[in-house]
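Checklist before submission:
- one chain only
- standard amino acids only
- sequence pasted in full

Submission:
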Amino acid sequence: MSQHAFKLAQAGHEAAPAAGHGADAAAGHAAAAAGHAAEAAGHGAGHAAEGGIQLGVHWAQHTPWGVVHVDTILSTVVAMLVAILVFGLLGRAVTMRPASSKVKRATAIEAVVEFIQKILTDFIGHGASKYLWFIGSLFVFIVTANWLGLLPWRAWELAGLGEAAAHGLGLNAPHGLVYHAPTADLNTTAALAILSLVMYWVSGIRANGVVGFIGHHWFAKPWALFPLRMLEDITRPLSLALRLFANIVAGHVVGLILLGMAYVGAAALLPLELFVGAIQGFIFATLSASYIGAAVAEHH
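Returned file contents:
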């Protein structure tokens, strides 16, 4: 029984005899009932947490600067290393005249680059290639992080391999070493959104100067809309962060529900999750490119 529930029950038991009869006795019994109900709820929640699947429970580490989600950081590093390894190997195959054994790899990386280049051309226009590194990195990281989360990590957990790996490395991971899509953590999506915000600010200042950018971005006529323009700079990264986070978490929830019902249902959901993981990377990259395009446009 929690301390709060115990106090409620104790207060109820003490109030009932002291009050005697009538309304006071009824109040005492009601307080006692409330205490027992709180105790039952606490036990029920504990059993649900022990027997069910917990969502949003992170390996939290307290530091002087705040709480750090260690599992999210490790998963982010894994996603980055996989993306660098895969696209690094594909990139090495791109030459002016690739050998026959490298044609398929060269075609794959060129298709990704051309896809991102088209996004930049549509939304930024002239000089869009200078932003390929940023928009391309966003797209590749988000897609890689999302797709890695579709691997059968639940089977890894049930087999106890995650806990064994954490124990072997001497890590105090509460749920073992298991990959969780970092895009399912609002801290990650917020960080990506802030990077996008800073990038289009910097790009706008470099293209039009400080006075030109601020004059058009915030203080353009009519000046009465200045509060709305300031609010827009808050809602843009907020919408980017929440959209990506909510869609990935929703996909995980649906996948876990289907996994609990039937493995066939979870397998049938896999193609849809692959599509959702890719489309979320596309949306994030496209919106970021559109913000940069609006910031670097010449204004007269």
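Reviewer check: Strands lie at 60-63, 66-69.
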